[in-house]
Each structure stands twice: as structure tokens, then as C-alpha cells.
Amino acid sequence: GWGLGEPLRRRPSPGWALSDVTPALHAVLDGAAVGGRWDVSSLVAVDGLVDEKLRAGLLSLLHGPSWPPEKGADPDYWCDGSFSDTLSGGPASSGVGLRPARLAALCAEGRDTPPAVAELEARVGAYLRAVDAASGGGGVDVCRMPEAAFGPEVTPLAANAPVSSDGEAYGWHIDADPALLPPSPWTDCFGRYPNRSPGKPRFVTALVYLSPEWRWPEWGAQTRCLDPPTGEVLAIPPAPGRLLLMDQDISHAVTAPAAAAGDTPRYSLVLKLCLHSHRGSVAPPLAMP
What we know:
By secondary structure, the chain is α+β, with helices and mostly antiparallel strands. It has helices at 52-59, 100-106, 115-134, 147-150, 185-190, and strands at residues 22-34, 37-47, 78-83, 95-98, 140-144, 157-160, 202-209, 223-227, 232-236, 243-247, 252-253, 268-277. The strands form 3 sheets. Strands 1, 2, 5, 6, 7, 10 and 12 form a 7-stranded antiparallel sheet that branches.
């Protein structure tokens, strides 16, 4: 019916192995007592999950074959005002975003899934299953965010390409929170609940940086994550192929590139995922123990 927990079943292609993945960052944020347990949001950055070949293949989905990506967003693929990085399409919805037909092709399922997207999903799934196994879990199903959760206006994949001229266009936001879902087939099945609740699907974002070159710190464009109890901000530097996994209820913000980047966009692709644990007493982990 609604595909509330349809696992990503593809396996990574030969030539890539989990041993290629190296940790770049692991942080916990927003600690609080929730339902008698101590709860924290997690943020994990890894390198090597997306190698150069896959990075280039993913970026090629975001521009025409003869378009130099450093020139700016390809107008045949992108248009102003169509990117929203807030659930409500609020103040952060003025950036450049993919045209609807391009976004639909990116999100295609089954045999129509672009091969690079299928490979990315396969590697992310393999990594998260390995994390679960290393943590003593009983198994985890990694699934795309289904339409049944938010409706068709929230797609399971998205892309953005902020440029220096965007300035302060991007505000603090969360990607999603299962405690704030609208009435839907999802809430009929699972109800509303705090993210990371034991026995409930965990809402996770996987973001991969796709620019072929990024000069850090001169070009800026870090992803900022907020720790509300302390007010501290954690900045994650972009790097070609770096993958960022984070709970969808983390407050975060895109940062436009610095003036030194010129017209070069900081390309990224986002997967919106639900993790269904086979063991109801814990939430599926994101980081290797």
C-alpha cells in the first residue's frame, strides 16, 4: 500500500568497500530528558563513502553534459526561488532549486532510479547496516522518506547550489520531526513521537557535498548546526564527496559561499531517510561505536 517502510535493497557495486569509509566528525547535540531517558541528536560526517567517480556521477545529474558546473547553476536544470530548505517553505525558500521535471527525475524509483542515486543509496544503506551490526543491533531497514509521511510536496531527495550572492537567504530550520507530522497514513500507523524513540522509525538526513573542488576555509559555505541548550554552533566544512548524516530534528542552516568563491556554487544532494530498527528497544545508531 503506502510503502511506510520499503527498504532500499540494492547492494553497492564491486570496487567499493566499507573499509574505504573514514570518520571526519561525530557530535551529539540538543541533549534533553525525553520520556524518562536521556536523548541526544547525532551528527556524523564521513569521507570515502562517496568516491570521486560517484561524486562526479551525482553532480552530472544536476547540470547538462556540456555545462561547466563552476560557471554557476545550469539554467536548464535550476531556477530561482524554487529551493526551500524549510518544511513550511518559509524564509529560506528563495535560493536556486531544481526545476520540477529535473527533481522528479532525480527522485524516480525502481528501474527509473538514476544509477548514481541508486549507488549512493546502496552505500548509505550498507554503512548504516554495518553501524547497526557493530553496535549490537538486531538489524535495520533503511528506507526513503515515504510520501505517506508528509504528502507529495516533500520529496525524498533534494539538491541545492548556494552561491555567494545568496547572502543571508538561508535561515535556521529542521528538516522534519515525527512529533510534528500532519495527519497521514504514517501517523495512523506510528503516531506522533519524538525522533529516536525506541521502537519507532528514526528520521535521518544524508547530505553529500558534490562540488569537484572546495577551498576551505577561503570559500566558506559550511553547514551550521545549533545546540539549543548551549547556543553553540558547530560548523561542518564542505569537502568533495563528504557525506553528512544527521537527525532531521537538528536545527541547522545552509551558509552561502564567501565572496572569494565568486560564482562557484556549493552543490549538494540530500537523501531523506527513515531507519526502521528490527529491535524495538533502541533507536538505530548513526555512528560506529
